[in-house]
Structures are given as C-alpha cells and as structure tokens.
Amino acid sequence: MDDDSSSSHSLPYATVQHSDPLMHHHSAAASADDVDGFVRHSSSTTASSGFYSDYPLATSGENSPFVMSPWHQSSTPFPCDSASAASATGLLASLVREEGHIYSLAAVGDVLYTGSDSKNIRVWKNQKDFAGFKSSSGLVKAIVVAADRIFTGHQDGKIRVWRVSPKNPTVHKRIGNLPRLKDVLRSSLKPSNYVEVRRHRSALWIRHSDAISCLSLNEDHGLLYSASWDKTFKVWRIADSRCLESVIAHDDAVNSIVAAFGGLVFTGSADGTVKVWRRELLTKATKHTPVQTLLKQECAVTAVAVSSASPVVYCGSSDGLVNFWEGEVKLAHGGVLRGHKMAVLCLVAVGNLLVSGSADKNICVWRRDGAVHSCLSVLSGHTGPVKCLAMVAEEEREEGSAGEGSWIVYSGSLDKSVKVWRVSEQPPEALLRSPTNLPADMDDAMAHHMTTS
Fold first, then answer.
1. In whole angstroms, what is the distance from residue 27 CA to residue 410 CA?
2. How far apart are CA 37 and CA 385, in angstroms?
3. What is the pLDDT of residues 340-391, one digit of tens each?
4. Do the Cβ atoms of 190 and 216 come closer than 8 Å?
5. Cβ(410)–Cβ(424) under 8 Å?
6. 155 with 139: CB under 8 angstroms?
7. What is the per-residue pLDDT for 62?
8. Closest among 248, 222, 251, 223 to 233, alpha carbons compared
9. Dihedral of CA 148/129/4/145: which sign?
10. How far apart are CA 186 and CA 417, in angstroms?
11. How would you list the strands of the sheet with 14-16, edge to edge?
12. At a CB cut-off of 8 Å and minimum separation 6, what does 71 contact?
C-alpha cells in the first residue's frame, strides 16, 4: 500500500503577470516519461528522440487560415482590477511552482487542482497557493472531483482517492485506491479473473496494466471512467469503489475518454480512431457496446471533448487538426478546425465555446454558431506545450465579477506553469468585420487553395 502524504505544508509561490522563463527540454536522453509530456503516439514510438518529431504540422504556420485571419491575436496581460478590461479576453495571472511539468487540471468554483510529474497535487484557491498532497509514486496524469472526493489517475496505472479533512480544508487524506486491495485479493484467487495484457504476461482484469491517461465522470449515474495506455477503459461505481466493467476498446493506447449525452461514451486512441460506445445499466454491472467509429486515420487521436450545450463531439489529433461531429442519434462529420501548427494536446468544450491547447504553445478559443465555428482569439504566453485545460464560468468562480458570457480558463503547460485567462464569448471587432470559417467541404477547398497558391 502506498505511503501517500497528506501534508499541507506549502512552499512559497508566485503569482506573476508575465511569461515564465524558457523551459529547457530533454532531447538527447528522451525517455517514455519525457514523451508522455504529450500522449502515447503509438506503441512503437514512445521513445522519440526529438521533442516534437512525432507530431507533424497540419499546414504550414504561415498558411493556416486562422493564423492569416484578422482575429488571430495574442492576448496581453492586464491588471486584475482594471475596470476597462472587465469583460475582455486576456491573461489574468500565472501560477508558478518549481515542482515539475503540469500534466492535469481540475477546477471547481474558485478551487483549482493541478497535477505534475513531481507526484504532487497542488490546490489553489482564488489563484493563491492553498494546500497540497502527494502520492508516493506515479506522475499525476488526470484529476476529477466528485462531491467530497478527488480522484487522481497516475502513470503507474493506479487511481487514488482523496478526501478533504472536515476539520481542516488544507488537509487532504488518501482514503483508498481503485481497485480496492480487498477486491484485488479476492479476484486473484480465481484464474478466470486474469487476462493477457502482453505476450507471456497476464494481469487481473480489474487493474490497469499501463499508465492512466484520462478520467471522466458520469455523476448522474455515479460512475467513473478510466482510460489507459493498456488499450482498455474501465468503469467504476463511485458508491462502493467497485470495478463494474473492463472494455478492450482500441488497438493501441486510449488517450482520451468522455462520458457524455444519451448514455454515450467517446474514446480516442493512438490507433487513430474515435469510437462511440452505448452504455447499458445492468443490475450489478454495466455493458458498453460499440455503435459507431467516427474517425479512422494514420495519426494519433490525442484529445476528445463534448459540448455541454448541444450534441457536438470534438477530436484533436497529433497533426494539429480538430475534427467535429454533430447529431444525437447518428453523428455526422461537421468539419475541421485549423488553428494549430502542431499536435492538439487538450480540449475543453463548455456551452458554445471550444478551447484547444497545443504543442505549438498556443491556445485557440472557438465559438460555435450553428454549423459554423469562429476563432475568437489565440492565447499566447506559454513557453512550453499546453498539456491540459480546465474552464469555469466566471460568475461561478467569483460573485460580482465580469458579466454574462465570461469564462475563466486554466491552462497547464510543460513550462511548469498554470496560466489563468479570462475569455469573453463576445467576438473582437476584427471578427465582426470578417467572414467566419466555412463548412467542412468549403473549408477544405480554401485550405487547399491557400497551401498550394
């Protein structure tokens, strides 16, 4: 059993208004953990010798339609108390601790959880360093918060469960692992509970045999989903921490999973596919059946997000593109968003907004109007790849703050910082004067024309 610390001792922190110092990357001695700064590209390329070599460009940087457009703009920092900037898009602050690269984020109201390769989970409250807790092993690749519990997914294949002390909100205690030790011991007695995970190697079906890549909650049904590089996703019942089902989902690492509308679950993989699964709730378990494959391509699928406002599914890839699909019963391809020069590493969709983070160090903010997406702004400031994103409505974070249509976006990067942005749904004047992006077929024709002219 892990000897995980629940210490709340805090080191000095800094909240600054400017870009962080340039991060120096490992290149000659890149290991599997270094490459995990992105996602698993494929089982044969996990020890890349170049930091970006496995992630080709979608289009040249100069020829990308959104880079050339008049609404491509770097948001500059502004003082938090500036009345004139109360509803503008821009950088509010950078949260910096010298603990390691940031791999995961979760935001609830005015509280932010950040996970890094130092095995620490930091807790920030109102952009101030509030508390911290640490696992004895396993880089923190995913964080989700469900009521009074925090679930963290780790590089070592374990899911750890934490709870805030009712006596002291700065103290977080580990209350268990998934799967529970007693379930592991009970299952290990039956040979039928073992499955082959690699050649000449078997493991219990209730345990992940490789890194946890993503966690997703279905709070309505009390379920937690975990995706892994072991090609599976697992379904956990939060009430009793039981593993209800393990699904061999893909031919390579599962990089992303989202539990979404209508009992559907979406998975994206290094095998280049995005799959749709339909959930059935059984008496003592669940059953997930594949119902559609949305995408099949050569390059890895690196991130999946689903809009909370309407049935729209987004998929980011290592080629820098974001594909999207629409529809409640049968999803149809809606188009391609071209805003990044390198791999899209993370996506978050809230309301009619989509935010995408990339290995090119930039963040694109998109607004959906019907079948058309417009790039509202490009947020620049990180000096390393943007690995994770979280987003909350500003009125949830702080009462009496900026008005309706204003969001707080947190971006975690391999430059060891988390940046805090205010994002407005209102388009800048340049966008109001310019055409929005075209539907899929016309957009492809425009991109082809621009890259060949």
1. 27
2. 8
3. 999 999 999 998 999 999 999 999 999 999 879 999 999 999 999 999 999 9
4. no
5. no
6. yes
7. 36
8. 248
9. positive
10. 43
11. 14-16, 90-96, 417-424, 406-413, 386-393
12. 374, 375, 376, 377, 427, 428, 430, 431, 434
* Spatial contact of 321 and 301, defined as CB atoms under 8 Å apart: no
Alpha-carbon distance of 193 to 27, in angstroms, equals: 41
Helix (H, G, I), strand (E, B) or coil at 397: helix
187 Cβ partners below 8 Å, 6+ apart?
179, 193, 204, 205, 206
Residue of higher predicted confidence among 8 and 330? 330
In which residue are the tokens 């620490």 written? 120
Surface-to-core class of residue 336, CB atoms within 10 Å of its CB (0-12 exposed, 13-18 middle, 19+ buried): middle
Asked if 88 contacts 77 with a C-beta cutoff of 8 angstroms, the reply is no
The CB density around residue 251, as the number of other CB atoms within 10 Å, is 13
Give the Cα separation of 382 and 361 in Å (integer).
6
Distances (CA, A) of 72 to 58, 75, 318: 17, 10, 22
Contact present, 274 and 299 (Cβ < 8 Å)? no
pLDDT digits (tens, 9 = 90+) for 31-64: 334 445 456 766 543 332 222 333 333 333 333 4
Residue 418 tokens read as 């988390």
pLDDT digits (tens, 9 = 90+) for 7-40: 433 333 333 333 232 233 333 333 334 445 456 7
Token pair in block for residue 197: 């995970």
- The model scores a pTM over 0.70: yes
Question: Residue 450: helix, strand or coil by DSSP?
Answer: helix
